Amino acid sequence: MRTVRQEANIARERLVQGLALAVLLLMGLYCVAGPSGLLAWGENQHLLEERRAKLVELQAERDRLKNRVALLNPQNMDPDLAGELVRSHLNVARPDEMVMQLP
C-alpha cells in the first residue's frame, strides 16, 4: 500500500520532469525560430548576398571616382574633363555648340 508521502514524492517528480521537458521544448523552439535560429539563417544568407552585391557596386563607383580624381591632377589635367567641368559648373558653351534642353 502506498503512503501519502510516496504519492507526494511521485507528484513532485512528475512536476519537475514536466518543467524540465517544458524548458527543453522552449530551448528547442528558440533554436529553430529564434533571432539566430534555423529559420533566420536563410534570411541572413539572403541579406548577406544583397550586401555583397551592393559592395561590388560601391567598389566600382569608388574606382570610377578615383579615376576621375586622377584625371584632375593639376600637373597633367585631362582637357576633355576640364572642358566638361567648366561647361557644367559655369553654364557656358562654345559658339559652335547647340544646347538642347530635355524635358
TrEMBL record:
Domain of life of the organism encoding this protein: Bacteria
Protein name: Septum formation initiator
